[in-house]
Amino acid sequence: MDDKPVMLIVDDVEINRVVLTQFFQEEYQIMEAENGQEAMEIIEGQSVNIVLVDLVMPVMDGFQVLAMMKRNDQLAGIPVVVMTANNDGDSEARAMEMGAADFITKPYNPTIVRCRIRNVMAREENEWRKVAQMAQNRQLVEMHQHVEKDSLTGIYNREAFYRKAAELMQEHHQTGYSIVYLDISCFKVVNDLFRIETGNLILKTAAFYFNVLTGDGGLCARIEADHFALCQPTEKLDMDNLIAGLDSTIQSLGISHNILFYAGVYPVENVFLPVDQMCDRAHMALNRIKGRYMTRYAFYDKAMRDQMIEEQMIVRNMEYALHEGQFVINLQPVYEIPSKKIIGAEALVRWRYPKGPIPPSKFIPIFENNGFIVRLDRFVWEEACKVLRAQIDAGYNPLPISVNISRLNFYSQDLLDFLQSLIKKYDLQPKMLKLEITESAYMENPHQLIAMVRAFRGNGFSVLMDDFGSGFSSLSMLKDLPVDVLKIDMAFVQEVDKSSRAGAIMESIVELGKHLNMDVVVEGVETQEQLDFLSKIGCREIQGYYFAKPMDKETFMGLVQRSQDI
């Protein structure tokens, strides 16, 4: 019996089916269909693990296949990858909104196609594991409470809302609906200032209000904590009245604290889009305005949709980009102020995307969310080791290079082993590769981070605290965390010639570093005035555009050569 997963290839053009079969016949048991109708007969008759479907076909096209599969609970979990003509962006976006896992374009590039299918199947496996874990957890909860109701507020819980909202909108598909996602600003403060019973009273009161508001024509649910979701006919939705009524209801409780709800609204365009994705879009709109006093709600718009599509593009291409060498490192030198000589560098990752470079500010947060940052970090570490090895082979006195250790790496049990394997592979001294950690990693899991920092230093690595002063700093952290170097956040530097308070804080940090036997590196130095101030307060090491911007490896090697007069 063949244990290979089953792939169904649906295309009315035989040569396309033949080409794709050649790509995957070693990994999958291949089945073929010439149109959507044949495909549905196969899918409904036997187990299929993944479907590759052309969007343009006779009898039944790919969009119809997607819609039929998503309406069937037993088929909705099968990943569908659509096939499109090159540059057909509208069809691709429409298919993704209908629940397609990804798309591939003709003519087929075998490497890109294989990477995308591998990404889809890996995501499906992760989702399956998450769903299995959630199912186990739900079984325990269901022993103590009704499966559809939130135990505190009595309105629907998350899973029931997703299911019932989908049923409601699809049954009344001629009616326009909106999803509203709400939460309370700084609800944790309420729980800290008052008793937990007060917080629960607020949640139960809000739930009662939402239940009355939605009535028979809509739905409401408590998604989690202080997060609520509503499904309401758009013509009955008046956000100004909703917020005003909610404020009045909460104020009637007489709590001596201003309780503010914020909301994001997603006007539903496709009722077959999974409801959790609708909530995500409403939540995305909410996050745009949360914390503003004057603006209490926002609507999901095209800009947010474009951002979502851009993020999907980044995720879709990350594996191929790493495989094809599109990620590279740049090195930004660190200089000693008294001698004005280069004494080290920081390795920074860059993405040379063929259609134009993608800035780290766009792809790093996405990779931190989906876990790809762990693999990217390891690539950067090895590239830095190659530059260190190149310095030694060229006869230079090697300048140390610092690399960033993203917080997710601290959940990898082989983190230290991997770093040591790189040091051994390239025949380096551990002190040549400096490790930069962030204050946010400390705040997330201080005990684990302290143990890892001690392990790093015990094995010869120097540890730097990056972006010190960015918002999480505390004297307690400096007391407990045995780092070697503080890297001061560039925000302080940009203010020293404008704010005496910023300058005083900067001077205090430099003095504190000396007393704790920690070196201090100041980032973001761009002007002569900033350099003069730092020199005056005793700072010795800086990094910034004043001396050098990040540069490629070849330019950096030339700079090292000139600095050592070789």
TrEMBL record:
GO terms for biological process: phosphorelay signal transduction system. Residues 6-121 form the Response regulatory domain. The modification 4-aspartylphosphate is found at D54. It comes from the Bacteria. Pfam families: EAL, GGDEF, Response_reg. Gene3D superfamilies: 3.30.70.270, 3.40.50.2300, EAL domain. InterPro entries: CheY-like_superfamily, Cyclic-di-GMP_PDE-like, EAL_dom, EAL_sf, GGDEF_dom, Nucleotide_cyclase, Rev_trsase/Diguanyl_cyclase, Sig_transdc_resp-reg_receiver. Keywords: Phosphoprotein. GO terms for molecular function: cyclic-guanylate-specific phosphodiesterase activity. SUPFAM superfamilies: CheY-like (SSF52172), EAL domain-like (SSF141868), Nucleotide cyclase (SSF55073). PROSITE patterns: EAL, GGDEF, RESPONSE_REGULATORY. Residues 311-564 form the EAL domain. The keyword Transmembrane does not apply. Residues 175-302 form the GGDEF domain. PANTHER family: CYCLIC DI-GMP PHOSPHODIESTERASE PDEF, SIGNALING PROTEIN YKOW. This is Diguanylate cyclase (GGDEF) domain-containing protein. It comes from Selenomonas ruminantium.
